[in-house]
Amino acid sequence: MPLVSIVMGSKTDEPLMQPALKMLEQLGIEYEMSIMSAHRTPGKVKEYASGARRKGIEVIIAGAGGAAHLPGVVASWTDLPVIGVPLATSELKGVDALYSIVQMPSGVPVGSVGINNSRNAALLAARILSIKYPSVAEAYEKYRRELEAS
Questions:
Q1: Which DSSP state fits 7?
Q2: Looking at CB atoms within 10 Å, which of 67, 93, 102, 105 has the fewest?
Q3: Closest CA to 9 of 122, 89, 114, 108
Q4: Tens-of-pLDDT digits for all 150 residues of the chain?
Q5: In what order do the strands lie in the sheet with 111-112?
Q6: Where are the domains of the chain?
Q7: Considering only the top CATH level, what class is 4-149?
């Protein structure tokens, strides 16, 4: 059963989110991936986010570029941790997405990582999950040791 959900607004965002997928696989964390738009498919976003916990999801990673509303809209429909990944898909090279994600109104928190840094989003999800899952904690610690040795 997937513990992490990765959502993105467009199929064209997938290459920028690949590092997260690879990191989750490296750590042995099951995930699912979906494409949905806060603007083009708002009903799908609402249904997905509000039902994520019932599906066993424990952390949501949401990648978005431009106005980057997806992470905030997802966070408005769930009480799970949401990690936003600002994507450099516009003329502003992701700065607009970063501002959109980190400037959420009080009461609707969204964590954020650096522009195009979906790998860090996966690592942050692993840290969150390691509180509850010893196998994730072990995999993360192994990753940290390998990082230190390189």
A1: E
A2: 105
A3: 89
A4: 999 999 999 999 999 999 999 999 999 999 999 999 999 999 999 999 999 999 999 999 999 998 899 999 999 999 999 999 999 999 999 999 999 999 999 999 999 999 999 999 999 999 999 999 999 999 999 999 999 998
A5: 31-35, 4-8, 59-65, 82-87, 111-112
A6: 4-149
A7: alpha beta
